[in-house]
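[agent] plan:
  1. take the single chain provided in the ticket
  2. run structure prediction with default settings
  3. attach structure tokens to the ticket
  4. add a short note for the reviewer (M.T.)
[agent] executing step 1
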Amino acid sequence: QVQLVESGGGLVQAGGSLRLSCAASGFSFSLYAIGWFRQAPGKEREFVAGNTGYTDSVKGRFTVSRDNAKNMVYLQMNSLKPEDTAVYYCATGRKFSQVPKDYDYWGQGTQVTVSS
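[agent] step 2 finished; step 3 output follows
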């Protein structure tokens, strides 16, 4: 079955960096869209980065990459800000989209907390 497992979250000071990883299994990884999303308390889940690019608030700070040979996707996050604090999810689907409902499978999420 399709499985996505995120790792790499944690607590970091503003200006610091984190690298999130997403291990994928159970599907033809190279054929599917992969997206990173985040959800802060009281807010809707939002697109962060993926095949279709980056949300404006992270451009120039975050970089998404994927290793199809290893079925891995990464999100390098630099110059982190307190407003980046959220649970980060990787997701996969057949549609290249920035809309959460277009993604069929989701990981469990990993918490990123940026202190000021």
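[agent] step 4 note for reviewer: The chain has a mean pLDDT of 95.
[agent] ticket updated
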